[in-house]
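Hi all, long-time lurker, first post. I run a small reading group and we've been trying to get comfortable going from sequence to structure in the token notation. Rather than ask abstract questions, I figured I'd post a concrete chain and ask someone more experienced to write out its structure so we can walk through it together at our next meeting. Sequence below, copied exactly:
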Amino acid sequence: MTKNANLITGRTAVLIAAVSFAAILSLAVFAVACDDCGSDGAGGDVGTKFDFEGMKYEVTSKGPGKNYAALVKGKDGAVVIPEFAKAGVIEYKVTEIKDSAFDLCDTVSVVMPDSIRTIGHKAFFSITELNSVIMSKGLNSIGSYAFSACNSLKSIDIPEGTTSIGDYAFESCSSLDLIKIPASLSSIGYAAFTGISKSAYFTVSEGSTKYKSVDGALFNASMDTVIKGRNSDTFAIPSSVKTIACYAFAGCNFTSVTIPAGATSIGKGHSPIAFC
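-- Answer (accepted) --
Happy to help. Here is the structure in token form:
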């Protein structure tokens, strides 16, 4: 009986030792896996990609209070971008839409969270089905060609706080006929609105020190440069205008236009297409 008891005790000791070793090994593996974690438990290096609710994201920052991600691949249909995307149990705040994020997507509408700060180059380029975009109230910049050739887009309300619109950002949005410019905007890129609807109408929020809208046409604040004209049978350019920007009247159907005597620059570098 003593011999059997000793045998059982020995086996139990071996089993306990094996379980203890396995537990220690598991903890070691976990420690190695989390060696690169922030104190909030956020795993994965900057640049790590992950999927969440049918879209792909990339970690752009990590650590206590700064777990951020960018949307790198969108999806078809009506899209609501979440403010937070999860990788396992870790939440990352979505702060940007990367270059070409919706390339080859058949997206019809987009609602952005207010956490989005930037929209990248060609983010929504040539999505012909896209007809509605609600932008982030926290938006700072819109990249070049971001919405170029989105032919179904009819209006765009650029939120207050946005400071820059890139080159060709809304170029060839042939149905775009209402554009709301915020007072915060300080830079509109080259040919950003060329090829939009012939009846396009601009509004500029009160308080802007850079831009002004008169009868739907877009000027700089001092009214000495016409940036985008308005389609009508006849158009009289204000006498204060000295510069007519490139593509300012591209696509407009005039029967007559009056150019002030003080105008000294017409479509510099592209004078044949300042008027079309």
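A couple of things your group might point at:
The longest strand covers residues 90-97.
Residues 1-33 form one domain.
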